């Protein structure tokens, strides 16, 4: 199977989060929204970095035959380094690790060496200064707009200052880094995040908890486009 590439940095992308889908029918859920999916966002929770447990490499592997989209794996884990190779082998295209756990430089190197697209994530209360030193070495900066661990939480608009700061830094230095937001993204908050400078929008509830996920994903894209300057 030929997988769809990540695409040019900075392009608007919708990344449905399967965390909000029915885990008993994941393959169908993924196929149903395919036409409006740029990246598929896979939320991995270890019950340690966050107070919840979700899925891991076996689920990525099981889903891989059902989608040729870019698999954007968000590793909410204390020790993601132990699993990067397993995710790569399972079919992950990109892996994002959290800056709060430390060891960032070597995690970035390890992910890169495996041929993964590399992301770095920051919680809402983690200042931009913590991720800034790594901007030249990553492909994606994920700025959480909720505290990670659960879907269906409310968008924290006070993170938008950090999004703008990151966008300025990325553009001023022509870094080619995608800026992703994750948590509480819906048709109201998507344009706000895009206007602040985000270009990859993760959405779980706003897509999979809607009666018609494909239409909801389409509406989200339309709303996001309205936020583009
Ligand atoms: C939060 C996860 C998010 C979450 C988004 O821990 O990283 O990806 O699933 O869900 P919604 O869109 O419902 O806030
Ligand atoms: Zn996520």
Q: Which CATH class applies here?
A: Alpha Beta
Form type:
globular
In DSSP terms, counting alpha (H) and pi (I) runs of 4 or more, how many helices?
9
| Small molecules bound in the structure, each named once | D-xylitol-5-phosphate, zinc ion
Poorly predicted regions are: none
Q: Please trace the helix and strand order, writing H or E for each element.
A: EHEHEHEHEHEHEHEHH
**Rg on CA atoms, Å:** 16 Å
CATH superfamily: Aldolase class I
Structural class: alpha/beta
Tally of structural domains: 1
CATH architectural name:
Alpha-Beta Barrel
- Total DSSP E strands: 8
Mean of all residue-level pLDDT scores: 96
Q: Estimate the helix proportion, in percent.
A: 25-40%
How far apart are the first and last residues' alpha carbons, in Å? 36 Å
Task: Write up this protein.
With 229 residues, the protein is α/β, with parallel strands linked by helices. It has a single domain (13-226), classed as TIM Barrel. 32% of the residues lie in helices and 19% in strands. It has nine helices and eight strands. It has helices at residues 26-32, 57-63, 84-90, 104-113, 128-131, 160-172, 189-196, 205-208, 213-226; strands at 13-16, 39-45, 70-76, 94-98, 117-122, 140-144, 178-182, 200-203. Strands 1-8-7-6-5-4-3-2 form an eight-stranded parallel sheet. Strand 4 (94-98), helix 4 (104-113) and strand 5 (117-122) form a beta-alpha-beta unit. Helix 7 crosses helix 9 (213-226). It is globular and about 40 Å long. It starts with 12 loop residues before the first strand and ends with a helix. The mean pLDDT is 96. The protein binds D-xylitol-5-phosphate (DX5) and zinc ion. Zinc ion (ZN) is lined by residues 17, 41, 43, 74, 182, 202.
């Amino acid at each position: 199977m030929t997988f769809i590439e990540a695409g040019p940095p900075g392009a608007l992308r919708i990344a449905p989060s399967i965390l909000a889908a029915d885990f008993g029918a994941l393959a169908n859920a993924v196929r149903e929204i395919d036409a409006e999916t740029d990246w598929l966002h896979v939320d991995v929770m270890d019950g340690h970095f966050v107070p919840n447990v979700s899925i891991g490499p076996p689920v990525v592997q099981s889903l891989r035959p059902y989608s040729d989209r870019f698999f954007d794996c968000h590793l909410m884990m204390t020790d993601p380094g132990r699993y990067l190779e397993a995710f790569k082998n399972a079919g992950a295209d990109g892996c994002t690790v959290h800056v709060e756990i430390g060891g960032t430089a070597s995690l970035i190197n390890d992910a890169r060496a495996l041929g993964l697209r590399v992301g770095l994530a920051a919680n809402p209360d983690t200042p931009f200064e913590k991720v800034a030193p790594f901007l030249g070495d990553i492909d994606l900066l994920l700025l959480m707009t909720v505290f990670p661990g659960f879907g269906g939480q409310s968008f924290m608009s006070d993170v938008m200052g950090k999004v703008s700061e990151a966008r300025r830094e990325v553009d001023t230095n022509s870094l080619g880094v995608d800026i992703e937001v994750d948590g509480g993204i819906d048709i109201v908050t998507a344009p706000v995040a895009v206007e602040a400078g985000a270009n990859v929008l993760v959405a779980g509830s706003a897509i999979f908890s809607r009666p018609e996920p494909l239409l909801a994903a389409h509406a989200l894209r339309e709303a996001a486009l309205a936020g583009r300057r």
